[in-house]
Amino acid sequence: MEESEGSASGNHSSSGSPITNMAQDYLFTILLLLPIDAILSLSMTCKRFKALTNSDTLWKSLCKRDLGSTCVEALLNSSNHQHHFPWMRLYKQVSQMNSVCCHKLSQPRVDLDFPTARASHSLNVVSDCLVLFGGGCEGGRHLDDTWVAYIGNDFRRMLKWKTVHSGIPSGRFGHTCVEMGDFLVLFGGINDRGNRQNDAWLGQVMFNENNSVTFSWKMIDVGNVAPPPRGAHAACCIDEKRMIIHGGIGLNGLRLGDTWVLEVSYSSCFGTWHEIVTHPSPPPRSGHTLTCVGRSRTILFGGRGLGYEVLDDVWLLDTCQDYLRWVQIVYDLQSIPDGVSLPRVGHTATLVLGGRLLIYGGEDSYRHRKNDFWELDVSAIPCITLSSKKVLTRMWKRWKSSGYEANARSFHRACVDRSGRYLYVFGGMVDGFLQPAEPSGLRFDGELFLVELALQL
């Protein structure tokens, strides 16, 4: 294809193509409808397409399209070179990303408060703040404290934590708390008397005139229909008004396999539960994860099953139709190195920059805790039909880790900032190297560290 400098009015030269004669804005619009491989192929067809595909404007638009506008804005705010941001380099680095660098953050000054050691708590980023609630601590006791720390754009600074003392949910561990826009929605959990909960709470960060941070909880009125009480279940937000939960440990220690959706009205603090009953569906389990990886797809991974076995199965909840359905994603283990145990419980699974599902830590069937990072390649999962039986290969990729080496842990919590580049990890159960330790040889950890996706911008 030859290059032509004809106008967009239709006066094409005899040697030009109608496409190459289009106005640049029209060509950008067309290119942004194409997958990245097709765009790169077009760059080799003529000089004009090559020039267009080297344009900062195009690559900034591609970053917004594929990484998300929120991530792009957050990366810009944290960058020292906003006017000459390397958009093409960012996109290529994200597509090839396979490593993280860890930084220890939990070295508070003696004059600053800091959350105590705990596990099975909740940790979220909402409105540029870290919010931590509850959990279990030494002696089998539950905690009922809420901690808030403003993050801002300075990701390595000492965080100043504040506690919220009034109007908070009762103490518990094994609950879930998910972000819904500018709100948090908390559900369920277990207290130190073994009582399971099925209440739901709405949390919101507020900034005063002097920019100090406060936080409030309000119980959500759900009427007469609610899931059975439970803890150690999994939950995630599938849009800004719906939360999905699955499984957990119910009454009498029974592991559950049910799926429920809560639709929330923020203005009235009212919610409506309804159960999703499909076949097939994931077997009962606890300590697993649910992660929304797109507006219509949610991934379930791992956990502990009915027979106390630790699982490594992957399920997709498809919400792109008028009804929800579960589909098991069958994969082979050819990409898993020998000697590596993939099954795990008490891990975290977080959607990070580039739509990557990053899994960290957990423990296996022998209570061996882990500090490894794995990517479950969401792009390898095709659009699933009910009859899909395809066995996927190369779905798992282990990431390298450098910098601070944290203790292997399970039942910790992790959350990601708005850019998707910085992952905060707090607490969990670690081996009892230090005394005093629990009789099981475990101890509760009070460490906060930062996991940074390795990019050179």
Automatic annotation (TrEMBL):
InterPro entries: F-box-like_dom_sf (IPR036047), F-box_dom (IPR001810), Kelch-typ_b-propeller (IPR015915). Residues 16-62 form the F-box domain. Keywords: Kelch repeat. This is F-box domain-containing protein. It comes from the Eukaryota. It comes from Flemingia macrophylla. The lineage of its organism: Eukaryota, Viridiplantae, Streptophyta, Embryophyta, Tracheophyta. It holds the Pfam family Kelch_KLHDC2_KLHL20_DRC7.
